[in-house]
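dumping this here so i dont lose it
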C-alpha cells in the first residue's frame, strides 16, 4: 500500500535516533527536536530528508539547478494537526481544539503556563524526581481568541504584613511594596493600569527551558513556544519600564542566544548593554565534557542614550579597597593610576624626568601620556604625580577616594565576586531548616544589580519571583518592589521569607547593608474565576477526573467554539487517554478569558465579591 506523505516523513524521521524517545507508550517521535533542527537547517536532517525521493520533491525546490529546502513549508507540515495525531492530538482535534505555528516575531498569540505541582525540592525529593514529564502545561492561545484575558482584574485576600503583625481589610497605599499571586502574564497586564512607565528596574530569572531546571519543561515546550512565552511577558515589561529603566534577564546557554535576538526586536538592538556572565558555581561536574559554571544575564536599557549622557548613574559604589594615604595627603586616601595610556596623541609626547633618580621617561611606542605637558605640570605642582612607592619608578597619577566615590566604579561583564547558588541554597536552608529550592540566586547578585540600576525608593519588579530573593534584597536596600508568583509556595516560602526580612533576619546581604528589620509589604491575589477549575484539574486523580470532567463539560466557562454534542460523543476517546492527557484536554477546554474576575465586573452579584476585596481593588486602581 502506498504511504501518504505524513507516514513517509514520520517513518523517515524515526530512522534517526536523535528524533526518537522511548517511554512507557513505546517509541515516540520528538517533534520539538525536529522543529529545532529545521530552524537551524541542521545538515543531518537535510541529508535525511533528501534521501527519500517523495520527500525531496515535496519540500525542496530546484532553483537554477540547486536544491533549496523550503524550511517554512516543512515547519508548517510538522506542526499541522494531521502529522503524528496521537490519542491526545486526535481527541483535541476531534472536539475542535488545535493550534498552528508561525514566525515568533509575527505572532500575536499568547502562551499561558499552568503548574501541575510546586517545582521545589521537597522532603526526600532529588533532582532526578524533577525530570518527570508534564510539570507544566503550556497553552498557545491565538490572538483572535483573546478578548478580555488581559483586562485589569479584581484583587482579593489583601493583607499588609508589618513588624507588629498582619493587617487585614486594608486599602492600597502608594508607598506599599506588593506581592501578587496569579499568572504572571495576566498580573503584568493588571499592573499596566497603575505602573505603566513607572518601574526603574526589572529583574527576572525565568524558566530556562533546559529540561533540568526546576520548571522542567517537557518536549512539547520547544524553542518557539518558550520564545512566545517570553515575548508576551517582555512586551508588557517594556511598557512598565521608566524612560531611564533597565531590565536584567538571567538565562542559561540553552535559550540566552535565542532570547537575545527576541529582546533586540522588543527593546531595540541599540538599547542592548551587555551579556553579564555570572560565575554561578565553583564546583566541577567531572562527568561533563565541559563543566558549566556560569549564567548569562542580558541587560537592556529602555533608552540607552540617557545613560550614555549620564554614565555616573549606572555605577557601583567605590568601596575604598586599595586606597591608602602613605604621604598623609590632606585630601585623604588615594590610589596610583597609570599615567600612560594607549593610543598616540601628538600633544602627549614629551619627556618626564624622575626628580629623585633623574631617569628620563617617554611613552612606549604607540602610547601617550594621559595629559598634555601643561596639565602634567599643574598635576605635578598639585602633588598629584607620584613615582612609585619609593619615588624611583615611572610617573603615576593620584586618584583620591572622594573622587572615585563621586564617579562610582564601572561594572565589568564577568561577576565572580557576588556569591554562587550554593550561597543562595545555604541562606534559604538557614531560614527554613531544609533545602526548599533548586539553585536559588544569592542575595549578593541581586544587590549588585540594584546597586547599578536603582536608588532608594525606586520601584523594582520581578515577575518570576520564586523564593523571593529580589523582593528580600530590594526591601533591605530601601527600594520599593513588586513581585509576581503563581505557585502555591508563595504562601509558605515567599511570604514567610519576607516576614523574616521584616523581623530582621541576618542572612544574605543583611550585615553589609546594616539591615535591622522593619518595613512592610502587601500580599494579594488575582481573584479566581475559571482558574479555580484549573486548580481542581491540577490536583485530579483517576478516581475523580471523571466527575471533574462532567462538571467542566456543563460549565459555562469553557471555550465557546466547542459544541456540547461533540463533547458527549467523545466519551470513549476521553476514557482511553492517560491521566496527564485528560488533564491537558480539560485545561484546554477552559476559556482563558475567564481565568480571573475582571475589574469591570466587580459589582456583578454572580461573583459575590466581598466588600473588603472591593475596597482594596478600588484603592489600587483609583488611588482611594
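and the seq i came up w/
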Amino acid at each position: 500500500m502506498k504511504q501518504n506523505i505524513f507516514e513517509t516523513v514520520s517513518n523517515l524521521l524515526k530512522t534517526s535516533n536523535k528524533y526518537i524517545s522511548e517511554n512507557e507508550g513505546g517509541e515516540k517521535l520528538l517533534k520539538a527536536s525536529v522543529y529545532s533542527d529545521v530552524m537551524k537547517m541542521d545538515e543531518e536532517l537535510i541529508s535525511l530528508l533528501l534521501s527519500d525521493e517523495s520527500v525531496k520533491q515535496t519540500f525542496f525546490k530546484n532553483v537554477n539547478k540547486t536544491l533549496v529546502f523550503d524550511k517554512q513549508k516543512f515547519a508548517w507540515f510538522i506542526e499541522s494537526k494531521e502529522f503524528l495525531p496521537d490519542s491526545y492530538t486526535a481527541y483535541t482535534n476531534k472536539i475542535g481544539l488545535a493550534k498552528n505555528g508561525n514566525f515568533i516575531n509575527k505572532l500575536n498569540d499568547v502562551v499561558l503556563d499552568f503548574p501541575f505541582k510546586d517545582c521545589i525540592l521537597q522532603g526526600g525529593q532529588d533532582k532526578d524526581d524533577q525530570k518527570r514529564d508534564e510539570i507544566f502545561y503550556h497553552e498557545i492561545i491565538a490572538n483572535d481568541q483573546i478578548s478580555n484575558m488581559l483586562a485589569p482584574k479584581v484583587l482579593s485576600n489583601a493583607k499588609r504584613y508589618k513588624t507588629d503583625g498582619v493587617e487585614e481589610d486594608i486599602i492600597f497605599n502608594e508607598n506599599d511594596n506588593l506581592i501578587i499571586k496569579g499568572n504572571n502574564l495576566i498580573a503584568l497586564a493588571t499592573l499596566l493600569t497603575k505602573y505603566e512607565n513607572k518601574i526603574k528596574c526589572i529583574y527576572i530569572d525565568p524558566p530556562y527551558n533546559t529540561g533540568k531546571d526546576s520548571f522542567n519543561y517537557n518536549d512539547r515546550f520547544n524553542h518557539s513556544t518558550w520564545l512566545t512565552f517570553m515575548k508576551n511577558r517582555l512586551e508588557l515589561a517594556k511598557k512598565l519600564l521608566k524612560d531611564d529603566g533597565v531590565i536584567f534577564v538571567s538565562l542559561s546557554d540553552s535559550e540566552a542566544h535565542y532570547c537575545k535576538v527576541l529582546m533586540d526586536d522588543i527593546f531595540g538592538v541599540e538599547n542592548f548593554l551587555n551579556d553579564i556572565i555570572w560565575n554561578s558555581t565553583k564546583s566541577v561536574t567531572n562527568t561533563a565534557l565541559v563543566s558549566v559554571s556560569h549564567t548569562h544575564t542580558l541587560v537592556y536599557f529602555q533608552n540607552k542614550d540617557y545613560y550614555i549622557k549620564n554614565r555616573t548613574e549606572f555605577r557601583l559604589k567605590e568601596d575604598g579597597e586599595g586606597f591608602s594615604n602613605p604621604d598623609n595627603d590632606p585630601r585623604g586616601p588615594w590610589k596610583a593610576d597609570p599615567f600612560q595610556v594607549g593610543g598616540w596623541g601628538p600633544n602627549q609626547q614629551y619627556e618626564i624626568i624622575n626628580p629623585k633618580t633623574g631617569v628620563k621617561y617617554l611613552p612606549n611606542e604607540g602610547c601617550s601620556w594621559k595629559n598634555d605637558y601643561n596639565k602634567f605640570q599643574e598635576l605635578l605642582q598639585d602633588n598629584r604625580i607620584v613615582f612609585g612607592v619609593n619615588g624611583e619608578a615611572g610617573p603615576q597619577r593620584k586618584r583620591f577616594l572622594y573622587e572615585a566615590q563621586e564617579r562610582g566604579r564601572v561594572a565589568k561583564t564577568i561577576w565572580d565576586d557576588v556569591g554562587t547558588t550554593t550561597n543562595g541554597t545555604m541562606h534559604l536552608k538557614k531560614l527554613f531548616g531544609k533545602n526548599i529550592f533548586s539553585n536559588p540566586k544569592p542575595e549578593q547578585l541581586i544587590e549588585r544589580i540594584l546597586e547599578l540600576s536603582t536608588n532608594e525608593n525606586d520601584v523594582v519588579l520581578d515577575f518570576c519571583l520564586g523564593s523571593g530573593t529580589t523582593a528580600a534584597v530590594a526591601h533591605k536596600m530601601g527600594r520599593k518592589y513588586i513581585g509576581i508568583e503563581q505557585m502555591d509556595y508563595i504562601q509558605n516560602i515567599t511570604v514567610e521569607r519576607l516576614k523574616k526580612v521584616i523581623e530582621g533576619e541576618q542572612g544574605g546581604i543583611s550585615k553589609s547593608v546594616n539591615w535591622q528589620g522593619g518595613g512592610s509589604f502587601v500580599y494579594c491575589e488575582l481573584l479566581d474565576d475559571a482558574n479555580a477549575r484549573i486548580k481542581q484539574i491540577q490536583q485530579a486523580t483517576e478516581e475523580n477526573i471523571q466527575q471533574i470532567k462532567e462538571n467542566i463539560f456543563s460549565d459555562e466557562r469553557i471555550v465557546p467554539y466547542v459544541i456540547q454534542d461533540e463533547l458527549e460523543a467523545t466519551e470513549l476517546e476521553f476514557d482511553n487517554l492517560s491521566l496527564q492527557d485528560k488533564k491537558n484536554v480539560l485545561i484546554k477546554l477552559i476559556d482563558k478569558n475567564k481565568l480571573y474576575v475582571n475589574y469591570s465586573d466587580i459589582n456583578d452579584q454572580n461573583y459575590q465579591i466581598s466588600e473588603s476585596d472591593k475596597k482594596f481593588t478600588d484603592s489600587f486602581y483609583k488611588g482611594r
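Residues 223-240 form the longest helix (18 residues).
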